[in-house]
Amino acid sequence: MKSLDASEFIRIRNRSLGFVLIIAVAISTIAYVSDSVQKKQLEFNRSHFVVDLNHATHAELNLLPGVGPKLADEILNLRASQGRFSSVDQISTIRGIKGARFAAIKKYIVVSSDR
Which of 8, 36, 48, 101 counts the most CB atoms within 10 A of its CB? Predict the structure, then answer.
């Protein structure tokens, strides 16, 4: 087995470090691009996301901005007590769905007569 002199060792070490650096840059670039794609996909999905108040499940209502489990329960309770919604404005009668929250939700909800 041939022994390495100092200059050969340094040359091999520098090449190895350069290779590791290239790999690290590639991985961070892929991670950045992947994160950007996921954010754009979320924006796309959010812009095409619509919940039908007359057919929505608890999980679907939870996807609405500003709606958590309690408000989802309230929406379902209102639907159960009054029957089908005839207008999206009817959910503004629920405590906690007023003003800015209603405005944020309104663009994601519809009321259909039949599914």
Answer: 101
